[in-house]
Amino acid sequence: MALCDRNGALGSARFFVIGAFIAIVMWQMVVLPQHFGFLSSVLREKPEHHLLEQWKAKHQHEKIARMHAEQGRHKAEQAVHSARSEGNLSKNAQTMAAKPYYDIVALIFSTGSAKDMKRMQLAEKTWLTWHGAYMTNLTMTWVYALCQGDPGTSNCSSSGVCSSINDHAVMLPCPADYARLIGKGVAGYRYVAEHYDFRYVIKADVDSILDAKCTVKRIQQIPKSCTSWGLGLWRAARDSKVFENEPGAGKYKNPVYKKDTGSDYYPPYMTGWAMAWSGDVARFLGMGGLPADGLHSMPKWRDTWTIEDAAIGTFIAGLNLCRLSLRSECSIWTDMTTHNEYHKRDLILTNASEDELVNVIHVKVLPKGEIEDFEGPLKDRISRPRNQHGDVANVQVESIKHCAAKCYLHPFCRAFEFSRNATAKDKERIEFSPNATAGDKERNCQLLSRKGPRDNKAFKNFKLYIRKDI
Questions:
Q1: pLDDT of 61-72, one tens digit each?
Q2: Looking at 52-56, 290-294, 305-309, 330-334, which range is the least confident one?
Q3: DSSP of 372-399, one letter per residue?
Q4: pTM, to two decimals
Q5: Which domains does the chain have, with CATH numbers?
Q6: Contacts of 56 (CB under 8 A, 6+ apart)
């Protein structure tokens, strides 16, 4: 009897367990879907649709990582820049984007001399700062590159910002030696790549002025097929000879380059006054901003070649990049020193009035009649039919200064022809005359869109002036 009772109890327990299991399964299959729609959504929808909001928030960083992998770093940088501009960038995202972002970073070679410090101040009031009509929608910052031992740097630390010279002046690990100027370039690009995120880099000398607004416009015209590029005044292959120790070579002696490369001519390179690079090329020149030693180290460029801009051209010779020209596109001025020189160019950059510009144009004493920034006067003429006037304008002006001012301010003018004796009954505003006929009267100021070819002889008593800044 006891055995039967024990077997009956075990059977009841088994029945209870089985019944409980069946009840749980039925509750999950019938009751839960009716109240929460959970199981039905699993069966009908993609897994992501039924995830809890807390889970989505917790794993949002995984989506961000996938976006970086799938869409690429460029789109992620654009998103960060856009969010920063709109004030929507979270603290975590700001921490991730540790380096400050600018569309353009300008790397400017300088010293700490009083003259260069003045140039820094004038550059910041003119071409380095968007103002007035000189404006784009891109952000820009700049770095003045200094080397150890440069004039005026004795009170600077061995590295980092030297605010006693300028808040944008930075001491770099390079010697102050013109024969090894490439050292400043190598260190400068590395500093920029290490400290900034950017889309483009402008490199310029401290005594140069680049029309950055025009340069941005030119950049926006670069075809998408040119993902890597250099924009500036390119010298063609075999255009520049490598000098060793020949008499008269002066500062252009470069025997170490000849020994290292065996080349008699430099590869294509941009003159160092002012130029622009796509961000990837600038980062390549800066070795990604990575250190020269350690687990993630990058190699160093040679710093023993004399000609800095030609050395940079050699470094990039093997890159698949587009060589794009600023010649006859955007103004570049060099050897700038005084306030008046910067002020005059600022009037041009900001598209000031003709009268304002006339007041700062100086014409050397006759009979020379030379004008700064122009080649001339030349007893020559831009080739065209004898009865055709200036293709940009045929206009009567008060003086040669007014003719020069009109050429400065017109976006297509590259040269002008002026006559002191040509007159008209009435002073007239600019007349566009690309289809001038023999019956038209030539005015005393002919604006032209070309610098050549030339006739090698003057038309009547007109003198030719050709712009050198563009």
A1: 444 444 444 444
A2: 52-56
A3: TTEEEEES--B-S-TT---SSEEE--SS
A4: 0.76
A5: 55-88 (no CATH), 101-333 (3.90.550), 363-467 (3.50.4)
A6: none
